[in-house]
Each structure stands twice: as C-alpha cells, then as structure tokens.
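Holo model, magnesium ion. Inputs:
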Amino acid sequence: MKIRQLSPQLVNQIAAGEVIERPASIVKELVENSFDAGASQISIEIEQGGISLIRVRDDGCGIEKEDLPLALSRHATSKIASLADLENVRSMGFRGEALPSISAVAKLALVSRTQATDCAWRVSADGTESEFHFAPDSLPGGTTVEVRDLFYNIPARRKFLRTEKTEFNHLESIVKRMALSRFDVSFVLSHNLRKIVDIDAEADSLNQKRLAWVCGPTFLENALVIDVDASGLRLSGWVGLPTFSRSQGDMQYFYVNGRLVKDKLIAHAVRQAYQDVLFHGRHPVFILYLELDPCLVDVNAHPAKMEVRFRDSRSIHDFLFRSLHRSLAAVRPGDPKVIEISRERQAQDNAPTRRVPSNYPPVRSPIQSSLPLRVSEQIESYAILSGERSNVAPTVDSVSSESYDEVPPLGYAIAHLHNIYILAESKNGLILVDAHAAHERVNYEKLKQQYASGEIPAQPLLLPLRISVTESEAGLAADASEKLLNLGIELDRIGVDSLVIRSVPSQVANGDVECLVRDVLADIQAMGTSTKVEQKINEVLSSIACHGSIRAHRKLTQTEMNALLREMESTDNSGQCSHGRPTWVELGPKELDKFFLRGQ
Ligand code: ADP
Ligand code: MG
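Output:
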C-alpha cells in the first residue's frame, strides 16, 4: 500500500466530521467566533432548517483584508500563539478549524470590515485552501458569514440530516444555550424570514425575556438565585425549586467560564444535591455558571469543545454539591417574597451598560448585576422579614387584618381536615399542609442533625418488645448492634429467631416500633457491606423518620398544628417530604378568586 499525502480539502472534510454534525453545529461555531470578536449584537438568519442557508452577522472587531485567507485556512487562529496561551484560554475558539471545516462541506462566504478600513471585503472558499476570490462589499462594520447548501458535496452525510423542522429545533436550542452564556449580547433569530426571537440585551436588563424564552415564563418565580464564592471558585445562576422539576433532563445548562459543557462529574454533583428533595424519576432545572482560573480547566478535551477536564475534579465536585445542597436546604416558606424584593431593588438600579471592549472578553457572570442577593443575604433578609417567630397562635380565632404583618409564612392553623390536611390562614390566603409528609420531613432533618452531631437520642421502651425475625435478621441485628445504637435503636438477640427491642429514637417512640425495626434491618440487609450503610445513612434515617411521623388517623389539636407549622418554617427542605413530594401549597388571592370567577 502506498502512503499518500491527503489534499487540504479532504483533511478539512475529515475535520468537519468531528465538529460539523448538522446546521446547529455550524451556528455554534459562528456565534462563538462572534463572541470572541467582542460583538454586542448577533443576528442569525436561517432558511430551511439551516440546510440551505445560515447567515450570522455581528458587529464585532472584524477581520483585516489580508487576514481573510488565513481565517479560512486550517490551523490559523488569532486566539492563541503558544502552549502557554493554550493552557490559559479565555476565548471560545482556539483550534483554528471551524471556518475551513465548514468551507469544506458547504459553500462559505465571509464578509468583514474592521474599524480602520472604509470598505468591507467578501471572500469565498471551497475548502481547497488554494483559491480565494476577493470582492469589495458594503457592510457597516463587523463580520457576516454565509453558509449555503450544507453537505452539497458529501451526499452520504446529507442523507443523515433530518427534516427542516427537526434541524431548526436543534439549531434553536443551541442559540438558546448561547444566549444564556452572554447576557450582554443581543440576539435576533429568524427562520424562513420569520422572526423567531429578538432579545435586546439593554431592554432586557433583568434577563427575564431570555430566561422565559429558554425555561418558560414561570421559571423565575420557581427558582432560587445561586451566588457562592469560595477559594477561587464562583458558582452563580438559577436553580429550579424541587417542585419545578421535569420528567426529562432537558432544561439543564451548565457553563464553565462561559462555555456550555456536558460533564458527568458536574451532573453527578447536581443530582446529589437534589437527591434528598426530588421525587424519584424527576429531573431538576438549572442554569449555572462556574467561574475559575482558566488554567485550572483544560478546554482542549473535545473537538466540539463540549467537554472539559478539571485539574482538581474532586474539589469542584464538592464545591458544587455543597453550594447547591446548602442553597436548596435553606429554602423557607415565604422565601419568594425575598426574591421579589431583590427584583424591585434591581429595577431601581440603573441597568449598567455592558459592552465588551476587547477581542478577548473577560469572563463574567451574566447574573452579576441582575439578582444581587446571595444565599446568605437571602437567609438574613428572610429573618428580618419574618421577625421573631412565635410558637403560639394569637388567641383570636383568625387573623385580624391589622395583624397580618406579623403572620408567619405558613399562617395559623384553622382545622385538621379529615385528619390529613392542615388548613391554615396565611397573609396571602389559604395554606394546605399534608401533615404526615411535613412531619416526616421535620423528623428526618432532626435525625440527620442528631446523627451528624454524634448520636440520636434513644428512648427506652416502658415494656421491651419481643419480635420474631428470620435467623439471618437476628444474626444481622447482633452484628450491627453498634450501628443500630448510633441510630438510637437498642436490640438484644434472645434466641435463634427472636429479638427484644429495648429502645428506639425518641421521635418515633409513639410510632409502630416493631415495623420500624423490621424496616431498618431490611435496609441494612439490602445495603450489605457496612460502609454502604454509612454512605446511604440518609435512606435509613428517612425510613426511621417515616415511622415516627403523624399517621393520617389522629386529629391534631390546634396547638400541635401550629407547632408543626412553626417547625416547618425553620426546617431545611421543608417544602418536600423525604420522598420529594410537596408538603404544602398556598392558595393565594389569584387562585381563590378564580374559583368564584371574581374579576373576570
Ligand atoms: P478559531 O475560532 O478557533 O480561531 P475559526 O476557524 O473559527 O478558528 O476562525 C479563524 C479566525 O478567523 C479566528 O481566529 C478569528 O481571528 C477570525 N474570525 C472568525 N470569525 C470571526 C468574526 N465573526 N469576527 C472576527 N474575526 C473572526
Ligand atoms: Mg471559532
């Protein structure tokens, strides 16, 4: 077999195989180039799903005439010059491959004009890198790239393209992701001459239009603001409340230094942070930005730059998990008010003008100036809002209008409906609480704290309880007696197949003790090794909590109900039971009016 040097066009076509899968991938590369050029306005015109035309126009720095052929040549870039630059990449591009790859699989024309020149130049290329045709053109400044007839010369790949509509959907979702990575850039997207979206960065200074376009109009009301800074790492953005979860993981956006990435480590950390509060099979919604020193991430890990490598992945994982876990746990009934306040405060501020000055935009969090409250501040403001919370309801039957300001977020109990739901009157309207679910969460969080700080207080049973178990369960109980003691459960094996229960955690002493012990033994048995129990201790604690919770058969007194409401207000994760189901809902004036067709 003879060895041959491949032609530049074939080399470019091979490279295109890695980065250009479909029209959406071209849009991604072109918009990244516009970002790198410091553009503040990007317009994207699409025809027939991007198969017949993609035109990306920007107002960035432009390319000088003599550099145009280089822009279209392989391994030519203005973004890095040395290995040191590669280890410190701040731009989106750096491989010098996108334009030549595109020109090898489609008809490409580049029109550009820098500030310094009085005329724009158009150059077209066919990926052979041998001939470039120049012509003067008119363009106010910036760059326009036109890509026509994708895969016109590679029929085999053209066959893989889907319908126009599907290709456009892919393309639109790429534009959404990119719009979320740079809140200071305006975007216009049109398809077959119809405008799909037009987001003006200045007019949308609260980012509401952009977020609504990507995550739906109710996302902001159902999201927490994240902004955590620690030892050189910054995590900011929005995470959806557990109740705003989805059946698919389709609204998850994670940016590392402005670059959207998909990463197993990140996905794992986020999933873990939500583990305790999400109903099984549901997926959280999030838009998160991680910023760190570029030399701590390797962005050269994937041709389409969709993956990164962290130098210290362990500490990134821990930082993400801890920040998110803490923020989610800190949600308290009544919190949305805090977000509203911060929005109002924001609206009073003048929206800062944010133009990117240089070819290498400094990486910056897009929410820096949008919702300024940090989690710690949120908690503080919450404390101020709610004032001193007392355990006691006012003596009047219901809340008089003058005293509404002092009403705690979950209000005061009115009734225990069917011995299941607590009805309470709140400042806004009516609160409904699933008493069992809420009590379960309160117990669970208490157990977690007690377990973390040493031991769960055990309460001896007045009459030790004898139970029959299988022989293997009896053996397990004896082997795991130390572990069980830490959980507040004291057992003795008194025969081949019988145990006696001497004490249980105090919260569950009034529950079904026998059932509790059986379940915990089953948990431990299922987990097998003893380290596994340690890892899954939350599952064990959650099943203990479940047994101690109010069963739906006893009528609660008003004092008990109010005590539970007050406990919920100060308990982590109190919005969901330990299985992720909601524990309470509020029917505000809007919902109540709707029942009676008021104001319609
Ligand atoms: P890379 O982005 O990795 O450098 P590309 O092939 O995407 O490689 O682009 C090659 C070069 O062309 C870039 O380095 C940049 O100098 C120039 N360029 C491409 N698009 C634009 C644009 N929209 N505005 C200004 N310069 C551009
Ligand atoms: Mg590029």
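Confidence is low (pLDDT under 50) at residues 337-398. Residues 29, 33-34, 37, 58, 60-63, 71, 77-79, 93-99, 143 surround adenosine-5'-diphosphate (ligand 1) (CB under 6 Å).
Archived with the compound record.
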